[in-house]
Amino acid sequence: MKSATEILQRAGIVTTRQRVVLLDRLLRRTDHPDAERLLAEARDGMPSISVDTVYRTLNLFAEAGVIQRMAVPTRRARFDGCTDPHDHFLCSDCETIQDVPRPPERSAAIPAPVSACGIVSDVQTVYVGVCRRCAAQKR
Ligand SMILES: [Zn+2]
């Protein structure tokens, strides 16, 4: 795995300690956190960091393609440190987001009716439902 510093430099983003720490934390997790959760953890080592800074930094990363801002119907924006093509399962009860492999046959072609709407820059598939843990609690 490439280091956060390396990834930022390659993307042409000026590295600051806050940026490196935030990206490093995001790369180490697979739970697709929101900015508040990252902020709570980042405050450990950087007590003065603000929620605005975290949002601005995450949006900067997303625009540079370093992370993915997720297209999910959750209360707060969620972010994914993994930019390799993959899909997601979102639990509508607990808002847990799990990674799902993308079927290879779907990754290639953009359907003609979609291209007719405009130029596609990103495709994200989210399966929304109730996760196994929440379903078990309901029984
Ligand atoms: Zn993911």
What descriptors fit this protein?
139 residues; alpha+beta; Arc Repressor Mutant, subunit A; Dna Ligase, domain 1; 2 domains; two-stranded antiparallel ribbon; 7 helices; 12% strand; binds zinc ion
Report on the architecture of this protein.
- This protein has two domains: 66 residues, Winged helix-like DNA-binding domain superfamily/Winged helix DNA-binding domain (Arc Repressor Mutant, subunit A, Orthogonal Bundle), CATH 1.10.10; 56 residues, 2-Layer Sandwich (Dna Ligase, domain 1).
- It is 40% helix and 12% strand.
- It contains seven helices and five strands.
- The strands form two sheets. It has a three-stranded mixed beta sheet, with no helix packed on it.
- Strand 3 and strand 4 form a beta hairpin.
- Helix 3 packs across helix 4.
- Zinc ion binds next to loops.
- The site of zinc ion (ZN) has 6 residues, from loops.
Write the layout of secondary structure elements.
Blueprint: H1 4-10, H2 17-27, H3 35-42, H4 51-63, E1 68-69, E2 79-80, E3 87-91, E4 97-100, H5 104-107, H6 112-117, E5 126-129, H7 132-138
Parallel strand pairs: 3-5
Antiparallel strand pairs: 1-2, 3-4
Helix pairs in contact: 3-4
Bound molecules: zinc ion (ZN).
